[in-house]
Amino acid sequence: MEVQFEPPRDLDVIDRVADMGISSAGIHVETFDPQVLARIAPAKARTGIDGYFRAWERAVAAFGEGQVSTYVILGMGEDPDLIVAGCRRAIDIGVYPFVVPLRPTVGSLMEDLVAPSPEYCETIYRRVVPYLSARGLGAHAVAAGCARCQACSGMSLLEGRADADGRTHLPLLTNH
User: What is the C-alpha end-to-end distance of the chain, expressed in Å?
Assistant: First the structure.
């Protein structure tokens, strides 16, 4: 089971959540570009990217490496180099950055944005996934949640986990 929450003011909350038997945690920063964060998620910007890193460090200590994830959304006008640098910094402390394309939803504040091209997403995936792999992290080892599922991202296609036919699949589902 995964629980998702914002960085708490009292980081002891993270330990209490882990003690409840939760398998993994999602603490989602959305972007490592501070200008984009301020525009799309002002409350998260007030926490600050460093505030997320403090929470992630505590969460990794509580849940384990690879059991803490963060959404990183592409297509909001971000600087790709900031995204990759932030992902690598997160990976270095044991956080799985779940990189996904923006999917504008009708009626949302971002409905007029255009989803990023698959090519753009792939360039970011190709800069992040090898770093994940070198660190020994991957979707296959995440216990629960969005990073385990991978339905919203193409990252797992580059992580090298596939069946004999070269197809990736959800490890929770079988045809047996």
Answer: 24
